Amino acid sequence: MGDLLVERDGTGVVTVTLNRPARKNAMTRDGWIAFTRVLDEIAARADDRVLVLTGAGGAFCSGADLGASGSGDSPRRAMQIVNAALFALRDLPQPTIAAVSGAAVGAGFNMALACDLAVADETARFSQIFSRRGLSVDFGGTWLLTHMVGLHRAKELAFFGRILSAREVHDLGLLNSVVPEGAALARAGEWARELLGLAPLALAQTKELLNLAASGDFRESALREAAAQNANGATEDTREAISAFLEKREPVFRNR
C-alpha cells in the first residue's frame, strides 16, 4: 500500500503514515478505502495495542485530493467511502494518537480530531478549509467541533476556514500538546509506550465509555423529542392539558 505505510515495532505500537507527500498526503478514493482496510485489520489484531497516525514529508493530511481523477461514484457513494474511514478510525478499540506536522486541513484537521489524542509540532497549520472550496464540513467535523469547542466557535471555524497555528488550536482545546518542530512523532511514541503499560481491555472499555458519553447529536436529540411527544399525545393528561387551555381552566391530571 504505497499511499499508506504500516509499521509495527514489536511492542504493540503500530504507526500508520499517510504517504503522498507530493500532495501533502491528500486522500484519494482508493486511499480512503485502503485506510479503512488497514484500520479494520488493526481492530482485529490483539497484538496491535496503540495506533499512531501521522503523515510523510512534513505534512499530516491536506484533506481530500480535489485534483484526483473522477471515480464515477455518485456524491452519496463517495461520502459513504469517506464515512467508512471515519467510523473505522473513531470506533477503533485501541487508543489512537495523531502526530501532526505541517498541513492538517479539511478532512485532515478532522482526522486529527477523530483520534483519541492529538500532538502537533510548531509547524502544524490547521483549517476547516471546506467553505473556501465551495464545500460543507465533513469527516465528522460538524459533530467533533460542536462538542469540543461549542456551537458558536464551531461555526466561526467552519464558516471562515481560517488558517490556525498549532498554538491557536491548542488554546481552543483541540490539541493535547504542542511540541517543537519535528518532535510530534517522538511525543506520540512516548505516550504510546505509556499506554502499553495499561490493561488493554480496561483501556478499550474506558475509550468506549467516553465516546458513548459524548455521542448524542442534534438529529438524535430531535428524534428522541419526537418520540416523547408521540408518547405524550397518547396520554389522558396531555389531552386534559390541551382541553383545559382551550377552556381557560386549570387542568386536573390523573397520571394516565
TrEMBL record:
Keywords: Isomerase, Lyase. InterPro entries: ClpP/crotonase-like_dom_sf, Enoyl-CoA_hyd/isom_CS, Enoyl-CoA_hydra/iso, Enoyl-CoA_hydra_C. Its EC number is 5.3.3.18. Pfam families: ECH_1. The keyword Coiled coil does not apply. Gene3D superfamilies: 2-enoyl-CoA Hydratase, Chain A, domain 1 (3.90.226.10), Lyase 2-enoyl-coa Hydratase, Chain A, domain 2 (1.10.12.10). PROSITE patterns: ENOYL_COA_HYDRATASE. Belongs to the enoyl-CoA hydratase/isomerase family. This is 1,2-epoxyphenylacetyl-CoA isomerase. It comes from Nonomuraea coxensis DSM 45129. The lineage of its organism: Bacteria, Bacillati, Actinomycetota, Actinomycetes, Streptosporangiales. The gene is paaG4.
